[in-house]
Write a structure and sequence with these properties.
heterodimer; A: mainly alpha; 3-stranded parallel beta sheet; B: alpha/beta; 6-stranded antiparallel beta sheet; 4-stranded mixed beta sheet; 12 strands
Chain lengths: 121, 379
C-alpha cells in the first residue's frame, strides 16, 4: 500500500517572507510553520514533500526551528523523518543539505540529552 | 639634608615633571581634536564647542557643529566623540541643533548611525530636543534628503530643488521594532526601481542576512533595564545605497542595544569564550575579541545548541558572492571580513549598540550596471 504524499509549498501555503524562530517573533516564524503545517501533516501518517522554492529566502533561525524542532520539540524520530519527509528546491539545492544538517544535529543533541538523563537516574 | 631625603625629593620632582608633561600632551591632543572638529575656530578662541542661541519662543538651543567628515571606519574616534557629545547634551535636558554647514562627507555607516542615534534620542527625550540645519554641500544635502534624515527630524523643506543623480541612489531608511521581513524585498524594489535587477541568488542571500539580523535584534540586543522608552525595545534601522561612481552596493543595519560584547556571555559561558580565543582564565577579553569570539563560536558550532548560526548568515552573503566585505562595529570593537582581509581592532571611539555594513561590488549585486552620467551632481 503506498503512503499518500502531502505536498506543502512554503511560498504558496505559508508565506513568501518566512522569518523568525519563535511564535512570538511573528506569524511567519519557524515554530508557527512547524506547529500549524508540518507537524500536523506528518502526524496524519502521510509522507510530506516540502517545496522550498518561491520565497524571498530563508534565515537559519527559521529553518532550524521549523525542521530541527520536529525532533527537539515534537519528538519525531530521525528514521521516521528520513522515510516520510522530503524537500525540493530547484532554485537553491544547498537548502536541502542545510536542513538535513539541522535534523542530524537535533538528533545528536536529543540523544546526548537522553544519555545524560539515563546516567543521572 | 640626609642622603635619603635628597633621593626622596628627587623622585618626587621627577614624578611631578612627568605629570606636568602628561597634562601638556593631553592639552595638545585636545587642541588637535578641536581643530579638526571646529574649523571655524570656536575652540581656538576659547569658546564652547557649541554655541547657544534662542528661537522665536525664547527656547535656548545648543548649536553643535557636525564634523567635516562623518565616518565610523576612516574617522571613528572623532565621529564617535561627536555623537557622544550629542547624547550627553540631549540627555542632560538641552535642546540641540546639528549644524551641517561644514560637513562635506557622510559615509554609509555614519549615516545609519546618525539616523539611529537621532531617532533614539527623539524617542527617549521628545521630538523637540533635537533638530538640524541644511548643509552647504549639495551632495550631503541630497544624501540627507533622500535617505529620509530631514523627514525624520521634521526639518522643513527649503524649496530648493536638489537634482537627483541617476548613478547614485539612496534608500529612505527603514525602521521597526519587530521582524518585518517584508521590508527586505521592499528595500530592493525601492532602491532598484524598474530599471535595475538583482540576481536571484544574491537577493536570497541579502534576505537571509537581513532577516537573521532582525531576529538577532529581537532576541538578544536590548536589555529591558537599559531601555528608557518602550518604543525603542527591539528597534533596528536599515539603509542602502548604490553608487556607480564607487561601483559599490552598500547595505547598513543598526541596533542601539547593548552590543555583541555584552550579549555574548548570555549565550555562552566565559570558559567557552576564553577557549575559542585561547585566553587564560584570568584575562578579560576586550570588545574586539568578544566580537571575534562570537564569530568563531558561530563558525565552529562549539558548545552550541540549536542556536548561534545567525552571525554566520551575515558573513555568508560575502562568501556566496565571492567578493565584497562586511564590517561589524560594536562598542569599542570592530571586525572586518572579506576583500579587506579578516581581523578585529579596538578603538577609543564607542559605538552604542551594533552596526553592520556590507559592501558588495556593483557587478555582483546587479544584473546590469547603469551608466554613470557626466553631469552627475555628486561629481
Amino acid at each position: 500500500m503506498t503512503i499518500p504524499i502531502r505536498k506543502i509549498s512554503i511560498a504558496k501555503d505559508f508565506s513568501k517572507v518566512p522569518a523568525g524562530r519563535y511564535a512570538e517573533d511573528g506569524p511567519k516564524s519557524g515554530q508557527i510553520f512547524r506547529e500549524q503545517f508540518l507537524a500536523p501533516a506528518l502526524e496524519s501518517g502521510d509522507s510530506v514533500l516540502v517545496d522550498l522554492d518561491g520565497t524571498e529566502g530563508y534565515g537559519s533561525s527559521f529553518l532550524e526551528e521549523a525542521f530541527g524542532g520536529l525532533i527537539r520539540k515534537q519528538r519525531f524520530g530521525r528514521a521516521d523523518l528520513l522515510s516520510r519527509l522530503n524537500f525540493t528546491s530547484a532554485a537553491d539545492p544547498s537548502l536541502l543539505v542545510e536542513i538535513n544538517q539541522y535534523l542530524d544535529e537535533a538528533t545528536a543533541e536529543d540523544s546526548a540529552a537522553s544519555d545524560s538523563k539515563k546516567s543521572r537516574s | 639634608m640626609t642622603k635619603n631625603r635628597t633621593v626622596e625629593f628627587e623622585i618626587l620632582r621627577r614624578l611631578e615633571v612627568r605629570r606636568f608633561e602628561k597634562r601638556l600632551d593631553e592639552k595638545s591632543k585636545r587642541k588637535q581634536r578641536n581643530k579638526q572638529r571646529f574649523p571655524s575656530g570656536h575652540a581656538r578662541l576659547g569658546r564652547l564647542p557649541y554655541t547657544p542661541s534662542k528661537d522665536q519662543n525664547n527656547n535656548k538651543w545648543w548649536n553643535l557643529d557636525v564634523p567635516r567628515v562623518l565616518d565610523l571606519i576612516g574617522n571613528r574616534d572623532l565621529t564617535c566623540n561627536f555623537f557622544s557629545e550629542v547624547r550627553d547634551l540631549v540627555r542632560s535636558g538641552r535642546r540641540v541643533r546639528l549644524v551641517f554647514m561644514e560637513t562635506e562627507q557622510i559615509s554609509p555607516d555614519a549615516l545609519i548611525f546618525l539616523l539611529g542615534q537621532v531617532h533614539r534620542l527623539r524617542l527617549e527625550n521628545g521630538d523637540s530636543r533635537i533638530t538640524g540645519t541644511y548643509p552647504k554641500s549639495k551632495k550631503v544635502e541630497r544624501l540627507l534628503e533622500e535617505s529620509g534624515f530631514f523627514q525624520a527630524l521634521k526639518v522643513t523643506k527649503r524649496g530648493v530643488v536638489v537634482r537627483r543623480s541617476r548613478s547614485t541612489r539612496y534608500l529612505k531608511f527603514k525602521t521597526d521594532t519587530k521582524i518585518n521581513a517584508q521590508e527586505i524585498p521592499n528595500l530592493r524594489d525601492e532602491l532598484l526601481g524598474s530599471d535595475l535587477k538583482m540576481p536571484s541568488v544574491f537577493g536570497k542571500k541579502v534576505y537571509r542576512a537581513l532577516s537573521e539580523a532582525m531576529t538577532n535584534v529581537t532576541h538578544h540586543a536590548y536589555h529591558n533595564k537599559s531601555v528608557r522608552n518602550r518604543a525603542l525595545t527591539g528597534r533596528w534601522w536599515l539603509a542602502a545605497q548604490l553608487s556607480v561612481r564607487s561601483s559599490l552596493f552598500t547595505l547598513t543595519f543598526y541596533d542601539a542595544g547593548v552590543g555583541i560584547p555584552k550579549t555574548l556571555p548570555r549565550k555562552y559561558t566565559w570558559e567557552l569564550i576564553r577557549s575559542v580565543l585561547s585566553m587564560l582564565p584570568t584575562i578579560m577579553p576586550d570588545d574586539g575579541q568578544m566580537i571575534q569570539a562570537a564569530i568563531e563560536l558561530g563558525r565552529s558550532r562549539t558548545g552550541a545548541d540549536n542556536r548561534g548560526k545567525g552571525l554566520m548568515d551575515l558573513l555568508k552573503l560575502i562568501d556566496t558572492v565571492g567578493g565584497g566585505s562586511i564590517r561589524i562595529l560594536s562598542r569599542n570593537g570592530s571586525y572586518k571580513y572579506g576583500d579587506c582581509g579578516e581581523g578585529v581592532t579596538n578603538h577609543d571611539g564607542f559605538v552604542e549598540g551594533t552596526l553592520i555594513k556590507w559592501e558588495v561590488p556593483l557587478g555582483m549585486a546587479l544584473v546590469s550596471i547603469p551608466e554613470a552620467s557626466d553631469d552627475d551632481p555628486d561629481s
